[in-house]
Amino acid sequence: MSIKIEILNENEIKSFAEGETKVELFYNAEYVEGDIIKLTTDEPKFLVVELEDSFAPTFAYCAGEYILPIPFAENKVSYSPKCFTFDRHFLTVRIATEAEIAQRKNLCLNVYDHHKNSGLFPHSFANVETRNEAVFASRNAIDGVYANCNHGAYPYQSWGINRQDDAEITIDFGRKVDIDEVVITNRADFPHDNWWRKATLKFSDGTQETVDFIKTAERQHFSIVKKGITTITMCEMKKDENDPSPFPALTQIEAWGTEAK
User: Fold this and answer.
1) For residue 55, how far is the Cα from the chain centroid?
2) 15 CB-near residues (< 8 Å, 6+ apart)
3) Cα separation, 197 vs 6, whole angstroms
4) How far, in Å, CA of 67 to CA of 54, rounded?
């Protein structure tokens, strides 16, 4: 069993650390454009990850290799301006405990998700993102930031659908999970925003559920029991036809449950 963290740029290894069950890496330099963080494990593992020390430790499932491009310019506006800055960075990764693996949690949460993520789950993807801007990317819907009374740069990032009626977002868990509740936080920048009256949740087992929303800034809870699923897709959203705004959007999607038994 092994874990390795590397900081690289154009195939140059700037710093690295490795260990059996826990890794700590102190990087005493500023990040520059093109820098990436690479996390590797010798086999798929449940981890607690802190690759940016302004983020809370994150439970995640690593399939073996994960690469995080350090965000700059437009790609950074959906993150806190505090992150990835200055010249002192402390990165830590450890194997998750049995209790952490077994506990009920929000299985959609992953602050480290991004478009090209294929190794650290959950991972989000969508068939549309408003103007392909970072503040409207699908990753914003699983980053754990619930501010929804405005729209745009951090902390008001969201998944924007560019007024597309057939918009859909999928969360890939990367393994089988059992869920018992889905929680949706719609963006509520009224009167700029419209809101969805209903949506369909489709699951990897071929089943689906319809959920009905109210106009609110609060989290909306739906009891939904599914066993051994690997993905959830939110689609077929129906906006309020009486609201003149064309801009509904999603702030957060949560799926609460446990690892599949």
Assistant:
1) 13
2) 6, 7, 25, 27, 29
3) 46
4) 18
DSSP-based three-state secondary structure for 56: coil
Question: What contacts 130, CB < 8 A, 6 or more positions away?
Answer: 136, 160, 161, 162, 249
Closest to 162 in 3D by CA, of 215, 213, 237:
237
The structure tokens 């902390």 sit at 155
pTM for the model:
0.96
Please report, in tens digits, the pLDDT of each residue of the chain (261 residues total): 699 999 999 879 999 999 999 999 999 999 999 999 999 999 999 999 999 999 999 999 999 999 999 999 999 999 999 999 999 999 999 999 999 999 999 999 999 999 999 999 999 999 999 999 999 999 999 999 999 999 999 999 999 999 999 999 999 999 999 999 999 999 999 999 999 999 999 999 999 999 999 999 999 999 999 999 999 999 999 999 999 999 999 999 999 999 998
Name the nearest CA neighbour of 141 among 180, 176, 187: 187
The tokens for 39 are 């996390």
